[in-house]
Write a structure and sequence with these properties.
heterodimer, A: Non-ribosomal Peptide Synthetase Peptidyl Carrier Protein, Chain A, 3 helices, B: alpha/beta, Rossmann fold, 18 strands, about 20% strand
């Protein structure tokens, strides 16, 4: 069964197809050039599709790195 | 389709395929609408690589005006009320009071005029797909929400006048608001939070629905060409062989109106050039008597051929397809029996099988609309009006010719006349329609958009011949198109299609003769590519050069003249006013 991390990597691959696999887990809005405001919303929608949750737009500014999104998802999914 | 699926479709588009560039003009942040539009277009245009570019935020007219000289393959416009006046949206900060309404009406009229002019000024031949405002107006009127305000009607009237005017431009089509409402209920379309925080007013499902609707207008599916119907419990209620021809029914009084509605739709389709045939396991005499009834809503003379026998349905379908000379994938088969549908589907891969749901009103309603969608087309051509008659004449022609290839005496006495029109008529929609829907006699199967086609015909040395035919059995109309270019001493043929209705008349030979003679060519290069369906054209070339070609090839005049049979057609060019 895929972990939250694996599934989140898949979401990043969908939105940033040109981002090398090694850079995904360390990716931040500052380090990924194509991670603009439009991509941020698209990423949130892809995460909603993948995890079946609703992400509040108010959180967009905070979800600015792979790690932070992973942390948020673990909390939402109640994964220890 | 969700956002993830849309992104996947876009990312899997063929990288080396020819581009299909679309402009999306909308006043809001396009976001998922752009993604969905690209994905649906990519699905409809699998052999192209679709790109969707957008314009300036809040400036629909400016986006359209900026594209008057850019070679886009298509333009889409997703209009919403704030594009006509920012006060008609939730992101503005103007006056919503009654006093502002007169000014809002005046501003919207001016905005519509500007958008209309921008659309008119787009290069001819670029298709435009337009969606009128899909979101509700904000609460600016003095009436409660359940009552329509007079000013609201005035806004709607301005919009409809604009739409009615602009859709007269050739190639401009409008999303059907009723169908969009079925796919995206009005109450589920607007997302205030997304509008205020991101600038995209659409919910994700609504963005998907609008994207799909615009993509369908810009890259529509090829309409089906023929419908084969069962008779008992399908065209009419009842088993004619059991209850008799006078007892089968299809009217409201007998509670069998579903069959009457089906007949009415088939009659309308026949009028639009769709071929209607019948395949029934039945007693031929009973069917003949039923067809004599004056109250049939589908005139029996519109049904051809009628296959009534006790053999497998698939063999009747086989004979009908042969008479029509079209592939199974261009045909819909309707029957009330799931077993018959399965038997026909197994024997004829690609045929679209629909069950006639005689006892299910909801399913019948859906089937009627499905049929309209399968056969719907943007316009009716003069060729549509003569298609059935030309198929009948073709059947007579084949019968008199003795089946396969016609005898010399028969061809000699056919009084056949071919007209070659060499006008580079970029504005004749029949020419491109013929190119894009012909499968069997098709040089390479390449399909063109209007702008692709126009640019081909605009090149130095471009040639185009549109071929019409008639004989003593009647006219077949425009039945072939040859397109190519002269480059120095070399003649290249890039497109050559001929309607399957015109086979066995040596028209294809005369087309080659015309090319060699008119262009004084010693050799012609054919941009041939084999396809799954162009076997008849491959066989034709094999008859001249010895083998079926497998790639582009050169045909010499000597090769052609050695194998060309006698040609008996009278040849002419169209008189002024005929093109």
């Amino acid at each position: 069964m895929s972990t939250v991390r694996d599934r989140l990597v898949t979401c990043f691959q969908a939105v940033f197809p040109d981002l090398p696999a090694a850079e995904i887990p360390v990716g931040t809005q500052a380090s990924v050039a194509s991670w603009d405001s439009v991509a941020a919303i698209t990423l949130v929608n892809v995460i909603e599709d993948e995890f079946g949750i609703q992400v509040d737009f108010d959180l967009l500014a905070e979800l600015d790195s792979f790690d932070r999104i992973h942390e948020y998802l673990c909390a939402e999914m109640r994964v220890p | 389709m969700n956002v993830t699926e849309a992104l996947r479709i876009i990312q899997h588009a063929p990288t080396d395929a020819p581009r299909y560039n679309v402009v999306l003009a909308c006043g809001f942040t396009p976001l998922h609408l752009q993604t969905f539009l690209a994905a649906y277009l990519q699905q409809n245009l699998a052999s192209r690589r679709v790109t969707v570019s957008t314009g300036l935020y809040g400036d629909v007219a400016g986006t359209l005006e900026a594209h008057t000289d850019i070679a886009a393959h298509g333009v889409t416009l997703a209009l919403e009320w704030p594009d006509l006046d920012p006060r008609l949206g939730y992101r503005g900060a103007g006056n919503w009071g009654t006093a502002a309404l007169a000014d809002i009406l005046s501003v919207t009229r001016a905005a519509l005029d500007r958008i209309g002019a921008a659309i008119e000024n787009l290069p001819a031949g670029i298709p435009v797909a337009l969606s009128l405002p899909t979101l509700p107006l904000p609460p600016i009127f003095h009436t409660p929400g359940w009552q329509t305000a007079e000013a609201e009607l005035a806004l709607e009237r301005n919009l409809l006048e604009f739409a009615s005017h602009i859709t007269r431009r050739r190639g401009c089509s409008l999303v059907n608001a009723g169908r969009l409402a079925e796919n995206s209920p009005p109450g589920n379309r607007y997302d205030l939070k997304s509008d205020l925080l991101t600038g995209l007013p659409y919910t994700v499902p609504h963005a998907s629905a609008v994207g799909a609707a615009l993509a369908r207008l810009l890259a529509p599916a090829t309409p089906k060409k023929g419908l084969i119907s069962d008779l008992d419990d399908t065209l009419w209620w009842g088993i004619v062989g059991e209850i008799g021809p006078e007892k089968v029914s299809w009217d409201l009084a007998s509670h069998h109106q579903l069959h009457g509605l089906y007949q009415m739709l088939l009659a309308a389709l026949a009028e639009e050039g769709v071929l209607i045939g019948a395949a029934s396991k039945n007693d031929p005499v009973s069917v003949q008597q039923a067809f004599l009834r004056k109250d049939l809503l589908l005139p029996p003379d519109q049904i051809f051929p009628v296959e009534v026998n006790w053999n497998a349905k698939s063999s009747s379908v086989e004979r009908i397809l042969r008479t029509w000379n079209i592939g199974a994938d261009s045909v819909v088969f309707v029957d009330d029996s799931p077993m018959e549908l399965a038997e026909v589907a197994a024997a004829h891969p690609g045929i679209e099988c629909l069950r006639f749901p005689k006892d299910d009103y909801g399913a019948a309603y859906a089937m009627l609309h499905r049929l309209r969608d399968l056969f719907g087309k943007a316009r009716i051509s003069p060729e549509d009006a003569i298609r059935l008659e030309s198929v009948r004449r073709g059947a007579v022609f084949q019968e008199m010719a003795g089946g396969g290839s016609a005898s010399e005496a028969f061809l000699q006495q056919s009084d056949a006349a071919i007209t070659f029109d060499f006008c580079l008529s970029i504005n004749d929609p029949r020419v491109l329609e013929l190119v894009n829907k012909t499968n069997q006699f098709n040089l390479n199967g390449v399909r063109y958009t209007e702008s692709d086609w126009k640019s081909r015909l605009s090149r130095q040395g471009a040639l185009l011949a549109t071929v019409s035919y008639q004989d003593k059995f009647g006219p077949l109309g425009k039945i072939a198109v040859v397109q190519g270019r002269e480059d120095g001493e070399t003649l290249y043929i890039e497109t050559w299609v001929m309607s399957c209705r015109a086979f066995s008349r040596r028209i294809e030979h005369h087309c080659l003769k015309m090319l060699f003679d008119r262009y004084r060519a010693d050799a012609i290069t054919f941009e041939f590519m084999p396809t799954a369906k162009n076997g008849p054209l491959q066989d034709f070339f094999a008859g001249i050069v010895g083998d079926r070609p497998t790639a582009p090839f050169v045909l010499t005049r000597a090769q052609f003249e050695e194998k060309c049979p006698p040609l008996y057609h009278h040849v002419g060019e169209p008189q002024a006013g005929q093109t």
